[in-house]
Amino acid sequence: MVWDSGVVNTRRLEHVQDSSRCVQRSFKKPPVSPMEQRDHVLSEEDAARITEHMNAEHEDDLLLFAQVYAGEPGATAARMTDIDADGITLEVTMADGEAKRRIDFETPVHTPEDAHRALVDMALNARG
């Protein structure tokens, strides 16, 4: 596989299972330079927009996130208060009051599109 730099990706992992003659390959992108990393991060504006959208349009999903991922099955409501590259913070309402709960993403997100994919995947998984 050739990347923009013209360098062949040699970080290929190949595993052959003798019994089934199955081949699995995993390709990883080359490391991202610090300059590229600065261009692909969630800005404060992105975080505010995503938080506002989730609270306005996805109340049921946020409640599921609190119940399933934050381990609060008795939660009655949840509101997103923050999102960053590593996860989201919820304000969760329970019978005995409110509490903040942090839910980490499986892998860090770097763009609004990454965040969208992660949140959709979480919602689909939480719904079963």
Structure description:
A hairpin with a 2-residue loop joins strand 4 and strand 5 (97-104). This protein has helices at 34-39, 44-57, 59-69, 112-127, and strands spanning 12-17, 22-27, 77-84, 87-94, 97-104. The protein has 128 residues and is α+β, with helices and mostly antiparallel strands. The chain has a single domain, classed as PNP-oxidase-like (Split barrel-like), CATH 3.20.180.10. The protein starts with 11 loop residues before the first strand and ends with a helix. The longest helix has 16 residues, at 112-127. Residues 1-29 and 35-39 have low confidence and may be disordered. The strands form two sheets. Strands 3-4-5 form a three-stranded antiparallel sheet. A two-stranded antiparallel ribbon has the order 1-2. Helices cover 37% and strands 28% of the residues.
Proportion of helical residues: 25-40%
Biggest sheet details = 3 strands, antiparallel
Reading the helices and strands in chain order gives EEHHHEEEH
At the third CATH level, what is the topology name? Split barrel-like
**End-to-end gap:** 36 Å
Determine the structural class based on helices, strands and strand pairing.
alpha+beta
Q: Please give the domain count.
A: 1
Describe the strand arrangement of the main beta sheet, using strand numbers: 3-4-5
Q: What is Rg?
A: 19 Å
Question: What percent of residues are in strands?
Answer: 25-35%
Précis, in short:
With 128 residues, this protein is α+β, with helices and mostly antiparallel strands. Helix content is 37%, strand content 28%.
